[in-house]
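User: Please predict the structure of the protein below. I'd like the answer in structure-token form so I can feed it into my own downstream comparison script.

Assistant: Understood. Taking the following sequence of 261 residues as input:
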Amino acid sequence: MHLIYLDESGNSGGNLADPHQPVFVLCALIVPEEKWQSLETALATAVEKSWPEPRPDDFEIHASALINPKTEFFRRAAPAHRLAFMTAWLQIAAQHGLKLVYRPILKQRYSRWLVHKFGTGVIINPHVAALALVAQVVNSHLRNLPGQPLGIFISDENHQVARDVDKSIRLLRGAEGSVRLTQIIEKGFFIESHKSLVLQLCDLCAYILRRHEEIRAGGKPKPVDEPLWKLVEPLVTVGDEKFADMMGWLESQQKKERPGA
């Protein structure tokens, strides 16, 4: 069994024209079950080393809070200290052989696709489209591993999309043809991110991946972007996305829900 943690970065909901967040990224962190306990222990040890008690009651690792700290707790730490901690966490991910699958969505391009396919006024949260594509690559990755292990999705609680995510997983598990998820079991599971260090690690990866995609799209790089990307890049795995099939499936599902769209 593999635990597949999902987190997003650049979520602006139905606002696909936000100039400050032009890219949405959904990231899947794939953790073999036999490595989960040692991973959790290593992440916790790194937290204790870098951020010893006393810590705030609401302490949680968020990439944005480490890179652009807004709270006194993280502002007290020098940028080099915060970068060293993020480096340590990403090195732990590499040491445990974790894999990342992600899908960027350029929001303006996606908005134009929605208008082309469904007309004005129809908004499908980018998370739903990205999930269909990420799930396909995760499924391909699991199917190509020895023994073809199964996987289960674990997501940060996001009330905006939780129902749609659950529904998409269920429909894709029962779909016919190339889009069917053969290796994913059960429904999606949702947990509060502050309760899971692994989900917080996924948040860090998602942020770095989004920054990488924003720079590729013409954004201005920051000093931390390149060193963090060099640590994340070796973890990224690419599989059979079947883009046309998945977008066709998404279109067909939307038309079933909105006859005449």
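That's the full token string. The mean pLDDT is 90.
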